[in-house]
Design goal:
About 55% of the residues lie in helices and about 10% in strands. By secondary structure, the chain is α/β, with parallel strands linked by helices. It has 2 domains: about 80 residues, Orthogonal Bundle (Methyltransferase, Methionine Synthase (B12-binding Domains), Chain A, domain 1), CATH 1.10.1240.10; about 120 residues, Rossmann fold (3-Layer(aba) Sandwich), CATH 3.40.50. The longest helix has 25 residues.
Amino acid sequence: MSSEVVYDELADAVLSFDADKVFETTKKALRLGLSPGDIIEKGLAKGLRIVGERFENGEIWIIQLVAAAEAAQRALNELLEPEIFRRKMVRTSLGKVVIGTVAGDIHDIGKNIVRAMLTAAGFEVHDLGKDVPVEDFLAKVKETNADILAASALLTSTAPVQKDIVETVEKEGLRSRVKIIVGGAAVSEEWAKEIGADGYAPNAVLAVKLTKELLGVKEGK
């Protein structure tokens, strides 16, 4: 069986929204000796790009986007990243992203989808989880020398924390090198401009596109 056939099977598995199928097909690809990096780039990421396009075009629902992202994330976390570590491989990164849901907010489904799709697209993602204080975002940005800080807020009461993040990064003298993206049900393009963020991502697909644009990464990579 050719490697291209296996990569197509992986993409099709993602498009089936079946986490077990994605997991088993990923295991099959590893058993055949395919590179974890290629499995991600040519299989999982390809499938997620198609899912993203279909979501943008209104062909699938948000629940299907969630299912595809979570299926890919499981294969990444449980199979591919451990294998990359075992082989001591270095996966080429398009950039470093620190992501989290802001303090006071415990909603993280949307943030998790963004994390999965950014990871599959080739970014090194550091997920701080939910209810994350401003100082934790700042500390992780400094620790990782991140290129992007992505902050999600689902509640109107927690959106001001995004403003605090922008102001804190500015005070620390990091604003010139760190791009800040905001997202979540409580925010908008207007809000992003008001607080001085670099961009607003209403969904995971556009979050990936925006991240690439801000870092000068060409589409298709």
